[in-house]
Amino acid sequence: MDKILIINGPNLNLLGVREPGIYGTVSMDDYLNALRLDYPGLSIEYFQSNHEGEIIDRLHDVGFDPFLRGIVLNAGAYTHTSLAIADAISAIERPVVEVHISNVHSREEIRHRSLISGVCRGVIAGFGLDSYRLGIEALLS
Ligand code: DQA
Fold first, then answer.
1. What is the CATH number of the domain that holds 14?
2. Ligand 1 pocket, residue 8 CB under 6 Å
3. Residue 123 CA to ligand 1 centre (angstroms)
């Protein structure tokens, strides 16, 4: 069975309660349950961490797995700051799609800059939690 890994970075464990006007009211667990029903033939794995190094370790762990179609990564605020995560994405073989729930380009200027976009397969932002499904579609196409 094909596999996809979704990685969420810092503060995304609070989806559903964190700033619901921006990130919505649905928890990641509930969203993942619905997503997995939509893709019965796909193993959708999930990892969340508030720690930069743990995200890098997980990218290294899965990044050479030939059975992994790719990684859907919402690096949260590390998107805007982490050269180390960008380097990890460059180092691995499997494709990474950068996703954001909010439209980062309509928010504060500091969120307009991404250190990881250039090393990702592409970027999806602004479609709410549906950004993750669109990221999966990009990896499957
Ligand atoms: C986010 C946007 C980031 O700027 C922010 O730091 C997040 C979430 C998003 O999904 O919209 O934590 O990546």
1. 3.40.50.9100
2. no
3. 13
Residue with CA at minimum distance from ligand 1 atom 6: 77
**Cα–ligand 1 centroid distance for 1 (angstroms):** 30
Which residue segment(s) compose the domain that 69 sits in?
2-140
pLDDT at residue number 1: 80
Residues labelled as active-site residues: 23, 100
pLDDT digits (tens), the chain, 141 positions: 899 999 999 999 999 999 999 999 999 999 999 999 999 999 999 999 999 999 999 999 999 999 999 999 999 999 999 999 999 999 999 999 999 999 999 999 999 999 999 999 999 999 999 999 999 999 999
Q: Give the nearest ligand 1 atom to 23 CA.
A: 11
Closest residue by Cα to residue 47 from 6, 79, 98, 99: 6
Q: How many domains does the chain have?
A: 1
Pocket lining: 48 vs ligand 1, CB cutoff 6 Å: no
Give CA separation, 94 vs 63, 78, 80, 85, 139, in Å: 5, 20, 22, 14, 10
Query: Which helix (DSSP H) or strand (DSSP E) does residue 140 occupy?
Result: helix 130-140
